[in-house]
Write a structure and sequence with these properties.
single chain, alpha+beta, 2 domains, four-stranded mixed β-sheet, 39% helix, Proteasome-associated protein, ATP binding, Pup_deamidase
Length: 597
């Protein structure tokens, strides 16, 4: 699969009432979600029957009686707390937050586009809800993860992967990655500790709220690796549910967060057969022909053992707090390593496996079969080059590192805060810096701090996937320049204004249209054509009224195979059914033949 796999994001938004000293966030969340619906979609229920939030990937099932109430996310709600979006996604109330779940996509760049579409959908819902509210108490949404007073909410990632990969292997490798990827995916945070007990700045918003290594829970004692085994797909795949990430505003860290994780899952899948992994490591080639100078395959188990943390949770906090980027974390072996060193090894392991699987070019680089994977691997290398350069710079130099800050969100936010500190003479504990941090996440263009500096951030043209600026090639070294080797550029750039305009158009389109190559397309298409006939929807099932059987009859279509119900396969069936004047139930009957139902 390489980087291409089904993936998607979920974003919980912070919510407040402007100017109000006291407000009910749950009530405000209901108002926003209700505003996201229309007359046609407000009656459609979310189908909870296939959900099982207590199923544990470690092979157990938590009894409902033993579960905390907030873990029971499969209990139906009577109020309008679920809306199926026009793009096949979902808008709903999760505890005290409005949440957007993006439709299923097949690559990280599309996932970023539909993630941005969620921001626009939620902003429009807020504007609609505010029309019924006094101007001095308008609702405001924030794309962030903390309030600095002890509360945290999630920005989750979801990846479909082969179930054949043992879960303990997933835990071992993902722990290394999730702890160390913060150096280029962190969105930055003012304050240290859950309650901002200490003044300062750190790389990640989410890190201080992680307190265990593996667990089923998402709202308390949060784990580095979430064990919820609720796939919403066929039994051959699992859904890896990731809860440790930040709510990025910038394109590059968001794409890297998704892309690098997907590549490491590919590495696990390639080596899920231990005998095959041993054979390929010994031979140096498999389906492709690795060049004689290629790095031999690095077995995942050896990699995980080499860098296993002495205390993974402590390492998570330590990496986030270390603005020098030079601090080493303790390993179980008694040695130490930096987050940068671990990330370089992870990148090297993926590249080595790629050389074996697909062969290499004249430079020894893998001949990746798709452009998305080539872009992610180049961006990963660039990110580590950026981090190396920042690591060797003092604060004065960091303030002027505009190129690196265009790709490292935490650095761009730090520059903004540090310039304010120097201009005003305040210390890191000043409330105005906390306000800057909060304003960074505001979705309201009038108050968004990020909105004022976003022109400094590198944008990805999601149509081509190319960055506005160039991506460095060559080897990696922990030096002030960050990159070694030829230092060549890929030469593929886009005019910044053109890219920003095109990205905005793509996002608007993504609010209305579903991805064409996953089951999200069918969900959105049926919603558009038969809104009054649909009774309920979920990620894996669609239920419509079937009057031919009974006045209250219903018909359910199982769409558990996420890659079967695409536009290419389903559109001809639907067009034919509509031309014949068939009902929604009859159309689903025709569609069911595609899945052998």
């Amino acid at each position: 699969m390489t980087v291409l796999r089904m993936m998607g994001t979920e974003t919980e938004y912070a919510i407040s009432a402007q100017g109000a000293e006291h407000y009910d966030p749950v009530r405000l969340s209901f108002d926003v979600v209700a505003a996201a619906a229309n007359e046609s979609t407000s009656r459609i229920r979310w189908d909870y029957r296939q959900e099982d939030p207590l199923n544990d990937a470690r092979g157990t099932h938590l009894p409902r009686a033993a579960a905390r109430p907030e873990m029971l996310t499969d209990e139906p709600q009577r109020r309008i707390v679920n809306v199926i979006a026009s793009n096949g996604g979902r808008v709903y109330v999760d505890h005290a937050h409005p949440e957007y779940s993006a439709p299923e996509t097949l690559d990280p760049f599309e996932a970023v586009r539909y993630d941005h579409a969620g921001d626009r959908i939620m902003l429009e819902a807020v504007r609609k809800a505010n029309r019924a509210r006094p101007e001095d108490s308008h609702i405001v949404l924030y794309r962030n993860n903390v309030d600095g007073k002890g509360a945290s909410w999630g920005t989750h990632e979801n990846y479909m992967m082969l179930r054949d990969v043992p879960f303990d292997r997933i835990v071992a490798l993902m722990t290394l990655h999730f702890v160390t990827r913060q150096i280029y995916t962190g969105s930055g945070r003012v304050g240290l500790g859950e309650h901002s007990e200490m003044a300062g700045f750190q790389l990640s918003q989410r890190a201080d709220y992680i307190h265990s290594k593996v667990g089923l829970q998402t709202t308390f004692d949060r784990p580095i690796v979430n064990a919820r085994d609720e796939s919403h797909v066929t039994r051959d795949e699992r859904r890896l549910h990731v809860i440790v990430g930040d709510a990025n505003r910038m394109d590059v860290p968001q794409a890297l967060k998704l892309g690098t994780t997907s590549m490491l899952l590919w590495l696990l899948e390639q080596q899920c057969d231990s005998s095959l992994a041993t054979a390929t490591a010994a031979s140096g080639f498999a389906d492709g022909q690795a060049s004689p100078g290629s790095i031999p395959v690095i077995p995942v188990d050896d990699l995980a053992a080499e860098f296993r943390f002495a205390d993974a949770v402590d390492a998570m906090h330590q990496v986030s707090h270390d603005l020098t980027l030079a601090g080493s974390v303790a390993l179980e072996s008694g040695r130490t390593a930096t987050a940068w060193q671990i990330q370089v090894r992870l990148l090297t392991a993926v590249a080595a496996q790629g050389a074996v699987a697909y062969g290499t070019d004249s430079r020894g680089d893998p001949l990746w079969p798709d452009e998305q994977t080539r872009r992610i691997m180049a961006m990963w290398r660039q990110a580590l080059s950026d981090v190396a350069a920042v690591r060797h710079a003092d604060d004065e130099q960091r303030l002027n590192m505009t190129e690196q800050a265009s790709r490292l969100e935490w650095l761009l936010k730090w520059q903004l805060c540090e310039r304010f500190r120097r201009r005003t003479g305040v210390k890191w504990g000043d409330i105005r810096l906390a306000a800057l941090d909060l304003g960074w996440g505001s979705l309201d263009p009038a108050t968004s701090i990020y909105g004022k500096v976003q022109s400094q951030a590198e944008r990805l043209d999601v149509e081509s996937g190319l960055p506005v600026q160039t991506v460095a090639q060559g080897g990696l070294t922990d030096s002030p320049s960050g990159a070694s080797g030829s230092g060549q550029k890929n030469g593929q750039t886009l005019n910044q204004k053109e890219a920003i305009a095109r990205a905005g158009q793509d996002v608007v389109q993504a609010t209305r249209e579903a991805p064409r190559d996953t089951r999200a397309w069918l969900r959105a298409e049926l919603l558009n054509r038969f809104p009054h006939d649909i009774v309920a929807m979920s990620w894996s099932h669609i239920t419509v009224r079937d009057y031919s059987r009974h006045p209250h009859g219903m018909l359910c279509l199982d769409i558990s195979d996420p890659l079967l119900w695409t536009e290419e396969r389903c559109r001809p069936v639907i067009i034919s059914a509509v031309e014949e004047g068939l009902s929604a139930a009859q159309t689903l009957g025709r569609l069911s033949r595609l899945g052998g139902q």
